[in-house]
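Tutorial handout. Part one gives the primary structure; part two gives the three-dimensional structure as tokens.
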Amino acid sequence: MIDNVISFLQEQLDTYIQIKMEGQISFNNDKAVVLLQNHTQKEVQLEPDTITSLLINVEEEYTFRSGAAYEKKPNGGRVEKKNPNIYLNLYVLFIPYFTDYNQSLKFLSLIIKFFQSHRLFDHHNSPELHPDIQKLTMELVNLPFTEQRDVWAGLGLCYIPSVIYKVRMVVFTDTDTVESTPDLTGKIVVPVNV
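Part two.
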């Protein structure tokens, strides 16, 4: 599901920028916004003259966390045990990387304008949103200089003007019933449905 969120945001932003910049600039592979492609464990390589988007953090949203080990759900007269939902926030970094510094700043402004006017994505305003995703809320993240330095050092890059958005909330729901049965040794065995 995380891949669906990142791809969705990339496609939405790409469409917006293509419309805003129609005929003014040509992009590599006809895409203004690309997902990070060239990545090894030691270095990140940005594609020039594009906006690169990448996931830099995943955090659990504890506000909605259930303390129960299982939630009981009625199912046709019997009760099924389900694991409680997990609510995640994703931190997505958008890096406009252009040889012309002014172009980088121009695209940074377009990214901010887009997410300022599109703070909420749901199935009413974005029918192409994946069916498993109820809604996404975009929130601009302000990092102190020391944390910015840590992010860029972690990527193995020098600072490039960029913006981070917190994408609230991706909900993971247990769709498999948990039925435990003792095996011959008396240990509890939980089958995993693949």
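Part three, for discussion. The two ends are 16 Å apart (CA to CA). The first strand starts at residue 33 and ends at 35.
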